[in-house]
Amino acid sequence: MNYEEAVAYIESVPKFTSKTDLEHTARLLAVLGNPQNRIPHFIHVAGTNGKGSVCSYLNSVLMTAGYRCGLFTSPHLVRINERMQIDGVPVSDEAFLNVFRQVMDAAEVCMQRGDAHPTYFEILFLMAMCLFAEHAVSWCILETGMGGRLDQTNVIRSPEITVITSVGMDHMQYLGNTLAAIAGEKAGIIKPGVPVIYDADRPEVSEVVCARARETGSPALPVTSQQCTLQQRDASGIVFRFRRDSRQPPEEYRISSIAEYQMKNAALAIETAAYLRQHSRSGSGQPVLKLTDEQLRTGLWKAVWPCRMERAADGVYLDGAHNADGIAAFIQTAAGFREAGAVTILFSAVSDKEYPEMIRQIAEGIRPDHVVVTGVGGSRKVSPEVLAEQFRACGCPDVVTAPGAYEALQTACQKRGSGTLFCVGSLYLAGELREIIHAGGVSRV
């Protein structure tokens, strides 16, 4: 089996099936020699929006401090290797293939004993654990899939710290129909005695997280938007102040994103790093993390998380917002560009998202001059015509369809003129467009 065949095999495993339990994952890890036990430090991150960005900030900060880091995230934008990075670089095709073979050999042993076939996400998580152990990473930043409590990553029982980012209404068919229910699933990553840094902007979410923290005897440190103050924004990014403690003056930081919502994600990373460098492992007397203020600031500034309000070209921004909360955060930044000229939206969404609400928010919050829609997502694709009718029903004056991402980008670039183009609604769309733009496939960009 070659690399392409391995990827095809993984992609053939259904992504949204009943999860195998954590004992199943633990048995597979045991057959693999428990590689996770050779990784000294874990940071475990859950949430609805922002968890990938927080992981990216932490990864950059730790690398800047000289640590060897493994980063496990999902989904990928273009290539599946993106989900497993060592020191900021996706693993090679050769390494990917080798570790895939290891995992499938272990799966065969377990299946011969009566176990079920591993899930799509489980295969990738197991591969990451083997790769990170093999490459002797010091820190593993581990992003959950869509949940937390039952997520395969939750087999890691003793992380140094856990982080819960913004929790919103997404994946309701799997996680619950209320914020409290979804927060309960996310809070399932909190371990006994392990500190949790959490987004405290929503009281109903904070209540659930704090209850779980009390139950497990875990220190809980809140972070809110009110602690962050925008100082300056230009094409290169944002300067903001973050007040960690009301008794101390705010400190200034820079990030390379223009999105206001990234201030809070950066603040979650700052609070996480601050806790780790102020506290020691039990009985060691040494801080868990050795990090200077300068390394923290440099790491935050250097961090890049693709397709999160990413400036892909002059006047063209890619944002992977794909649920109501994500779109609301996107609008907070994008609406400010109306003063600079016409705004064009390139949009797509997949069928299990609340795309009518997303479209309503965009139409009312931005009032785009032009809209181009296309279809993405394979079996989860929504017809461009359906999306276009939604935009028209919300009062958008100029809405056209395109058969694919390339054609949609060509059309959108022609319509934007000297204005601004925002591409939003799906990480699948953002990933495709990013690849097209970087390949120089559209002359107008």
CATH class descriptor name of the largest domain: Alpha Beta
Widest sheet: strand order? Answer: 4-3-2-5-1-6-7-8
Helices, by number, come to: 15
Strand coverage percent: 15-25%
What is the number of strand segments?
17
What global shape is seen?
globular
The tally of structural domains comes to 2
The CATH superfamily name of the largest domain is Mur-like, catalytic domain
Q: Could you name the ranges where pLDDT drops below 50 across 5 or more consecutive residues? A: none
> Which value, in Å, is the CA radius of gyration?
22 Å
Major beta sheet summary? 8 strands, mixed
CATH structural fold name of the largest domain: UDP-N-acetylmuramoyl-L-alanine:D-glutamate ligase
Proportion of helical residues = 40-55%
Give me the CATH architecture of the largest domain, please: 3-Layer(aba) Sandwich
**Could you say which structural class the secondary elements and strand pairing correspond to?**
alpha/beta
